[in-house]
Amino acid sequence: MKSGGCFFAAWLIGLGTLGWGATGYPTPVESAQEENSPYVYTGMVRADGFTASGSAAIHPRFVLGCAHLNFRDSDATWLPAGTVRWFWKRNLGNHPPDGEGMLLTGYYYFSSYQTSFNQYGVSDARTYQRDFVVNYSATQDTAGGLAAGWVEDGVKPLTKGKLNKIISGYPSSRYVSGDPDRYRMHTTDLSQDFRVSRGNYLTLSGSETGRGNSGGPVWVWIRNSWAFAGVVVSGSQRAQDQGRSLIGVCALNKNGMGLVLAAAEAAGGASSLTRKTFSLAGVPAAIRDQSTVGRTFTASGLVGVVKEVKINLSVKHQRRGDLIITLRNPSGKTVTLLSAVAKNKSSGSDLNWSGRLVSGFSGLPANGTWSLAVRDSYRQHMGSLQSGSLEITTR
Could you state, in order of their start, the residue ranges of all structural domains in the chain? Predict the structure, then answer.
């Protein structure tokens, strides 16, 4: 069923109000907030004459959203490539005029979404958990070069710890025709934990974003910023006489990363998303007797989790056998790269590593602050940390 300018399935019934127990509800985003995270990454998508929500996350040429916008449920077929339009940061009350907006060049989706739709129906959790699409533009940025942060697996932060969450988007079907807020950007603030319904399909009772918000990005406050964690696939309240409301979310996971990487190739190559080199900040730095010097690498913009880490490091020191060198990843795991040798054993001077493979971080988060510590273990000999870089490859 397509209703009120948005794609919706038959499970979206009843408009109602929030007077029956919902704790999270959508409100219009004020114009002064449009440039703030996460609203600056939010936009409206339009396809086949209907609108939904999306976000510029992970990559500045991607628009992440729900697959059922790109899917015609009337004949169970996908829309042709190049038929989805993107309206970045749109916050106007009127419906987008025909022919306006950025025309996206293609999209990637789970083929199993269509299979599940045909076999189980649109309202089954086995269909919901594949209701995710990566629209992309191969010719221009979707958000002026901006790209929101994200989490590798959205299930954990959405289901544990009662972290602050925001759903942004365009719940147009909450409004009657002509309402000045109908096509404005909205936000729904939440703190309750979702629960796992099946796989990466999550639900939250007692809250709703309103009909029309399918594809709306779900953001979670983590590591001191808003990060993309999934998309709304069912944002409407249940029938009022059932006494409850419900949000359904398709959380980002490693399978969704496959769609992201495929879109990256189509949008101009994925190498910059899966392999990057980051320089050590604050060098050169003195290494004094029996003291530790700490410096950091700040990794960002990588998709996926760590596959391989290589380090380049230059240390000037009268006796490199005095040194203990450790590397800590953004999630707190520490690996010892070099251990000191006994003081009575011989040791050469200086240390120069080029492309040295570091083991112990495979499968862990790549983005964030990596901390390098160099300690001088004994008296008498001193030196300096000259330079360093970290090459991270993800999968």
Answer: 2-269, 273-394
Question: Greater confidence, 265 or 29?
Answer: 29
pLDDT at 183 over 70: yes
SS (H, E, C) 105-173: CEEEECHHHHHHHHHHCCCCHHHHCCCCEEEECCCCCCCCCCCEEECCCCHHHHHCCCCCEEEEECCHH
The CA distance from 305 to 366, in Å, is: 6
Strand partners, 218: 167, 230
Average pLDDT over residues 1-28: 41
For residue 18, what are its two tokens? 């929030």
Query: Is residue 97 scored above 50 in pLDDT?
Result: yes
> Of the spans 137-151, 214-228, 261-275, which averages the highest pLDDT?
214-228
- 80 prior amide bond cis, ω within 30: no
d(CA 206, CA 215): 20
Alpha helix positions (H), 29-94: none
Tell me the two tokens of residue 98. Answer: 């025909």
- CA–CA dist 339, 373 (Å, integer): 12
Mean pLDDT in residue range 5-17: 30
CA 136 – CA 25 distance, rounded (Å): 30
Indicate the helix (H) or strand (E) that contains 81: none
According to the model, what pLDDT value does residue 270 have?
Answer: 61
Count how many residues are written for the chain: 395
The 8-class DSSP code of residue 239 comes to: P
Residue 156 φ/ψ, nearest 5 degrees = -60, -55
CATH number of 2-269: 2.40.10.120
Amino acid making up residue 57: A
* Bond from prior residue into 365 cis (ω within 30 degrees of 0): no
CATH, range 273-394: 2.60.120.260
Query: Which of the 8 DSSP states describes residue 21?
Result: S
- In this structure, how many other beta carbons lie within 10 angstroms of the beta carbon of residue 21? 12
The dihedral of CA 46, 48, 51, 56: what is its sign? negative
Instruction: Give the C-alpha separation, 258 to 152, whole Å.
Output: 12
